[in-house]
Predict the 3D structure of the following.
Amino acid sequence: MDQLHDITERFTDGAQYIDGRPREGGSGRRQAVVDPATGAELLSYGLAGPADVDEAVAAARRAFPAWAGATPGERAGALHRFADVLAEQADDLARAESAQCGKPIRLTTGFDVPGTVDNTAFFAGAARHLEGRAAGEYSADHTSYVRREPVGVVGGIAPWNYPLQMAAWKVLPALAAGNTAVLKPAEITPLTSLMFARAATEAGIPDGVLNVVAGAGRDAGEHLAGHPDVAMLSFTGSTAVGKRVAGIATATVKRLHLELGGKAPFVVFDDADLEAAVHGAVAGALINSGQDCTAATRAYVQRPLFDAFVAGVADLMADVRLGDPFDPGTDLGPLISHAHRDRVAGFVDRARSYATVVTGGHAPTGELAKGAYYLPTLVTGAAQDSEIVQDEVFGPVLVVLPFDSDDEGIAFANDTPYGLAASAWSRDVHRAGRATREIQAGCVWVNDHIPIISEMPHGGFRASGYGKDMSMYSFEEYTQVKHVMFDNSGVALKGWHRTVFRGR
Ligand code: NAD
């Protein structure tokens, strides 16, 4: 990957970023960053261990008083400069993200990077709009008001599927509210999180406000989750690991924000625009090779449209072009790793015993065989309680099931442990409205599936976690509300003292 040399050589001083400086990780173990399109090693770096986490947390603690004490306008100014620096570095960020994840360059230049720049600009503005209720005399003798204060050092743990965007989601509301942060990216995709932290320094955000420790989950991740000086843990990843870190964080009475797995239903009623639904299902299932927590994974199609929908999806999937992520003509890149590709293939191979694989269901041959590619895959005939319908596959795999009544379609949509996102497809405003009310998910789209925007919250119900990323709602996670109560009477013997001082 010669064209990436200018990026990988930035990490010769190490792939950690603590107190405004790059450095080597001290765990004694090394980690490779691998291009999943070719299997070639892009970088080998020293992983962070517990001692690095301790130093990063200490740097964040030192930086906290000044950053928390800055005015909202000062923090907003720094975050606006941060957005500008990220925008200037957009091409480098997109290339690094495509290389370490295998994402098509059209996706990183059109979604990952501009989304991150927009998020940064949003939180720059939002930093000046932290609100509470009006002060008032809720008791005749007192004036009460609330202060919205940062919680302290926030530990963020992020997954590999959108490394840059997840870094932004974990870090930006925390910083905008006056917290400092220690981010642990997934150890296989640290590059853009490190570039993000360096850009923060270039923008003038003080040393120690944003630190990155690239270490293993069981080692650096658990140490961060249990660290006594970390006031809050913000975790995005799988439900299984989320449960484990929740246990660790709870033991130290941390504030906790969990963005976990998803299994988004895609409900097509029989009056839907079929062409729109077919395009929406294929795009929603294949974005980022299906490695998206909100990806359309289970399409429920009302019986009259079922056959035409399946045929349309199969045709469109056959048209999707797999290829080199850096070729602008490529629609679909590889999965994140060969190990993950094999895990996805395992779900589909097991499904052959109880369902029909209509298209795809294997890795491509020829030039792409050395990468972690997997063909767009359509499965029908699976039962609602089968593994491929219930569990998160996290690959380019769509299962389609029929339903009869609207009640049944909505019941199927709600019948997994997850509740992150869903979509309803109908031309009937009442049907669509009912679906938005009754489907239990943190986001329900109508006649679309996938778009997100900085102003609106993202977060799950049920086993998909709790708390919100993006939007003003995220400040509920990253601030704590303090009640301040002033006595207005000025007297020594207050009215309520009669409950204690008898007869006075
Ligand atoms: P993962 O749970 O395996 O890992 C996520 C992060 O946790 C990584 O940084 C990893 O190193 C760390 N980790 C692993 N074990 C740990 C431990 N014992 N203690 C502390 N940290 C640990 O998830 P992944 O495979 O990287 O990402 C895919 C998952 O993330 C999917 O389930 C997907 O749905 C979910 N996800 C959810 C959202 C959302 O907004 N809800 C967004 C993106 C991804």
Q: What stands out?
A: The CA atoms of residues 498 and 504 lie 7 Å apart. The chain has 16 helices and 20 strands.
